[in-house]
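hi! just following up on the protien thing from before. the input was this:
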Amino acid sequence: MTQSLHRGRRAKIIATLGPASRDPETIADLHEAGADVFRLNFSHGTHEDHAASVKAIRDLEKVTGNPITILMDLQGPKLRVGTFKGGSVVLQTGSHFRLDLNTELGSEARACLPHPEIFAALKPGSSLLVNDGHLRLKVKSCGKDFAETEVIVGGVISDRKGVNVPDVTLPIPALTPKDKIDLEFGLSQGVDWVGLSFVQRPEDVAEVRAAVKGRAGILAKLEKPSALDHLDEIVKLSDSVMVARGDLGVEMPLEQVPVLQKRIVRACRKYGKPVVVATQMLESMIKSPVPTRAEASDVATAIYDGADAVMLSAETAAGMFPVRAVATMHRIIGHVESDTHYLALMQAGHQETEHSPPAAITAAAGQIAHTLKAAAIVTFTSSGSTTLRAAQERPDVPILCITPSLAAGRRLGLVWGVHALVGDFIHSVDDIGDVAVKGAQRAGIGKEGQALVITAGMPFGKVGSTNMVRVVWIGGETKTS
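and the predicted 3d structure came back as:
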């Protein structure tokens, strides 16, 4: 049985699957509650687990009749200390602590750090953060196989806790051997997006793009301070970007994260790239049936900033209330978007339109839709580029994408305001009016007498050829401009 495309909101919801949610029934419930994109976190679970999730999503897709988006999230490099006598020790603030390549059990005086690439990049004054920043070390001296540090913030350090190195660029490729195996597996399963962790430089994005070969969109996760030094280049090279506030909040002072979030969102809007805000959005709902007021405000802020999507992680993967978390986020987004100031803020954050015919046509379509109080902008596209351009304008009406490409339709599930309808409907330019009207009715958008503003490229199927605007009325005549 088909399901309406139109959820009554523009920003999208990403739900992470895990032990609490990967069964087919819960996946269906999550989708019905508002999940637009399902995230498979390859830091956890087996290939068999993820294959079962993909099958359940694709089976659900057939039932709903609508494309459903799958994001695979690569683990990336994981930097960890070794093991300790008794499993843990306490480091006192002000004490000295040595890190080296010696694999013997650690003590209050030293521990193994089995990553020579870290020692190669360190210099006196560098910071090392352990266990999500709960412990902070400062390098006093170092060599190719050791670092003598001072404990700036002490505490318990235990086996295999993670290490962050915030103020140096590490000579580590973004794709680990595990990631390469996972990537090929995910692509063979037909995922739509690949989330790339540990991005430090534009070359990291180029590396994964060469491996993906166009089989999925590339979502660069910005979680390293060094990536922000190359923000514009990374955004331009990526298909989408995630504000990964977890590691970013460890490696940067906490008070900087909200400003960086806004900076990244602005850069993505400038270049027309979808942007996701992630991590700890409704964290308390892992154990509580309701979020805190601060969490609700956090989600609202991301929506007011113009994020394309917001993401739930442990809330849906391992939490006690996965479906309720999605439903709560759906309500928060809907309430923000009903605020009369919301679309004014979207327009205030609008960047200058690119100086090209397709961009000008798309901008004009938004103006026409506003003037006519149209039901929707309808984009005909084969690659999705026309639809992405329409979303960049942040129009005050829904965007209905009609495409013959299932891959494009699925990928657009991440994009602000877009509802994708997949099918080979068009055989000549004379068809587009009827197809647009039927598509809007199928999507649950518009009513008798409302206008639809159509953008398309002639000839059909040529990427970047948007060169036409047409206005049709539901139940009325067609006009072309």
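The chain has three domains: 12-76+174-346, 85-164, 357-480.
Residues 47-64 form the longest helix (18 residues).
cheers
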